[in-house]
Amino acid sequence: MNCYLTDTVNRQLAQLAADQPLWVALSGGLDSCVLLHLLASQPGLRERLSVIHVHHGLSANADRWADFCHKLCDDSGIRLVCERVTVEARQQGVEQAARNARYQAFDHHLADGDVLLTGHHADDQIETFLLRWLRGAGLSGLSAIPQQRRHGRFKVLRPLLDVERQQLEEYAAQQHLIWVEDESNQDRRYDRNWLRRELLPPLWQRFPGRKASVLRSIEQLQQDREVLDSLLQPLQQQCCDPCDWPLTANSSLCLERLQQQPARLQPYLIRQWLAQHQLQPPSAIQLQRIFAEIIPAAADKQPLLQLGQWWLQRFNSKLYLHYADDGLLPELTVSDVQLGRHASDIPLPDGYTRICVRQQAGEAGLKPGHYQLIPAAWCRGLNIRPAGRPAKTLKHLWQENRIPPWLRAGWPCLQDAEGRLAAVVGLAVDEHCWVADGLQLSYQSL
């Protein structure tokens, strides 16, 4: 058993570069503890390992689990990062909200090229397949959990996905491992727990050996999905445009080009576009809303659909994804900024964006000096007069530059000491602050 699991993990890791940093997502449960032990037992891998534990705060035992993970990593001599998160269910279930919070924590700590290893196993795969089947999922949903995928800057790899939970239990017993049990795993009110404890045991008893058959079917569905995605990829690329708006996904979907495609392909192209941004496949109800409410919306309407941590919204005949947290919020207090000749970039309070400050010899721009940074929502009623042009309201600037509605209230602006609007960052500088060899400002994602 020891050799089999080690070989299974190493076979998955063989596709990675020999020096690629590895992170283990450690919950403290059986699966992740076995995975950590398998990796830490190999000197060639141990030096590349870091561990991240996400403290959700959902259980009265959450502190005890975090302490367990700290002790386990201290005893193993492996670096641990423990990240506390706040789970806000809102319109989504607690399980999905917790997943979103976890991945936000992973985004915060993992760097470009890092690999996140999770302890998902074959029984998780079958449970996920059944849950999605019961919810009426199509090919994307029934493909269940991928062995690997990209998530933003890093890769997610699940080296135990072909291993059954019973094999993990046998390994843990052989190695005298200890772990913690999440008491919610016993709660049969959760669909996954009911499947695990009520439905599947008698099913496997009635059909011994069929678990491998179900796993083969899932593998075939995954291969079918890969073929379909590869065939659709050229069409999907034709429908997409690059997007560099802050707090917004890096591509938009052009509705005119989408609607030129056969009607039966359009839902698949939308799913594939969403998948590129690490979103779960939309449900049938969500897809119905996209085609009934979002796509045909009039230009002066702004219907929204929340998909995980993103909002889907139509603007200028395109579909965009933007963060549910909308940047510089109007209720933020005024902050002072000093812009000198060698001013550095200014991180903004949302944690996702910045004001990029540059100076190019011979280019006019903002006069260096002391300013107050405020969101555009505080500037209603103020005008700005760009050098050599008529005065403009912010509404005119938004329309002229086609600024999406989700960015307008929080767009960063600068006021001078007299309370006059000096600049709308990246869009306009008032003539009273416009100088030769001035500063060029832009509003960007970090």
CATH fold group of the largest domain: Rossmann fold
Question: Low-confidence segments, ≥5 residues, pLDDT <50?
Answer: none
Mean pLDDT: 91
Q: Radius of gyration in whole Å, from Cα?
A: 26 Å
> What's the number of helices?
15
Protein name: tRNA(Ile)-lysidine synthase
Main location: cytoplasm
EC number: 6.3.4.19
Binding site for ATP: 27-32
Please provide a written account of the structure:
There is one protein chain. The chain has helices spanning 2-13, 30-40, 43-46, 62-76, 94-109, 122-134, 139-142, 165-174, 191-206, 210-239, 255-259, 266-276, 284-294, 394-401, 405-408; strands at 22-25, 49-55, 79-84, 115-117, 148-151, 154-157, 240-242, 251-254, 304-307, 310-315, 318-323, 335-339, 346-347, 353-358, 365-366, 369-375, 383-384, 392-393, 412-415, 421-424, 428-429, 434-435, 440-445. With 446 residues, the chain is of the alpha+beta class. The chain has 3 domains: 2-208, Rossmann fold (3-Layer(aba) Sandwich), CATH 3.40.50.620; 220-323, Chorismate Mutase Domain, subunit A (Up-down Bundle), CATH 1.20.59; 335-445, no CATH class. A hairpin with a 2-residue loop joins strand 5 and strand 6 (154-157). Helix 6 (122-134) packs across helix 9 and helix 10 (210-239) crosses helix 12 (266-276). The longest helix is centred in the middle third of the chain and has 30 residues, at 210-239. The mean pLDDT is 91.
